[in-house]
Design a protein that fits this description.
Layout (H helix, E strand, L loop, with lengths): L4 E9 H10 L16 E4 L2 H13 L5 H7 E9 L5 E3 L3 H17 L4 H6 L2 H15 L9 E11 L10 E11 L5 E6 L7 H38 L1
Parallel strand pairs: 4-5
Antiparallel strand pairs: 1-3, 2-6, 3-7, 5-6
């Protein structure tokens, strides 16, 4: 991956976009949605960058014009030449990651249970905490970490309305060294088929939400029926 140049998309608000273009990116800390630790996050597919803006800034509003008014997508050129890249989808990269975890567990036995039972975001947050306490670099020795994660999109056409999803893959790119970001600019959403992506995203999310709510209503009705039979 030494010679690879990546294209990444960063979803954000209009206000944040102006600040980023003027002052540069600020690293996000590990939290839900930021699986790979502290860094600047990009998606390989613009779909997920648009979806991120919808989730964070529209609060259920499905109007494309309002999305364009409130949200932006920044396109980054990530030059990975001469930088350390950990690709968790690559067998070698994943083996390196496992060796890091094994080393941590041997040196700090109190981390064994958390690492064995934790999600990626929890494990990497733990590694960063160990780094902060020891002054040593484990996950932070890498300039870029990438990984694919499954993203479930509800398939309305399926007969199995409760459990059948279209499996999609979102590639997240976490840039820990800003020097990797060679160039970045705000995307003209309309020229990137933004309206089509927006319609697909909102349609899928609305269908999933409606079916989920229907399932909850039916489950509640069944439970109430059992309760009624028991006490009447």
């Amino acid at each position: 991956m030494d010679e690879e140049t990546l294209i990444g998309y960063h979803g954000t608000s209009k206000c944040n976009c102006r600040d980023i273009i003027k002052n540069g990116f600020k690293a996000s800390r590990a939290q839900e949605g930021h699986w790979l630790g502290t860094g600047v996050y990009f998606y390989e597919n613009i779909y997920y960058a648009i979806e991120w803006g919808i989730i964070r800034f529209l609060f259920g509003n499905n109007n494309y014009d309002i999305y364009r008014e409130k949200c932006s997508v920044i396109k980054g050129i990530l030059n990975c030449k001469k930088y350390e890249v950990l690709d968790l989808n690559d067998p070698l990269g994943y083996e390196i990651y496992q060796e890091i975890l094994k080393n941590i567990q041997e040196r700090f036995p109190n981390t064994i249970e958390k690492i064995n039972n934790g999600k990626d975001v929890e494990i990497i947050r733990l590694l960063e905490e160990v780094e902060s306490k020891t002054g040593e670099n484990y996950i932070s020795m890498f300039d870029v970490i990438t990984a694919d994660y499954p993203k479930n999109i509800y398939n309305k056409k399926s007969e199995n309305i409760w459990g059948n999803f279209l499996p999609c893959i979102q590639k997240q790119i976490c840039v820990k060294n800003d020097n990797v970001i060679e160039k970045y600019e705000e995307v003209d959403i309309d020229k990137e088929n933004g309206q089509t992506y927006f319609q697909v995203i909102t349609k899928n999310r609305e269908e999933y939400k409606n079916e989920k709510q229907s399932r909850i209503v039916k489950k509640t009705a069944r439970e109430n029926k059992k309760y009624s039979r028991r006490y009447n």
